[in-house]
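Record 1 of the preview.
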Amino acid sequence: MGKIKTGRNLPIAILVGLILISLVVLTLFINKYAFTFLALAAVLLAGYEVTT
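->
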């Protein structure tokens, strides 16, 4: 039997998570307005994802 591949690519998922966390932390320390914009964009994208 062949190997069935299911789910996400775990190393890539971890890398993307670390990049997103570092982006949030960096914008919080560098510029509070950039953090506000990033948070707003995340909320809008999440709302779009839920409704579609």
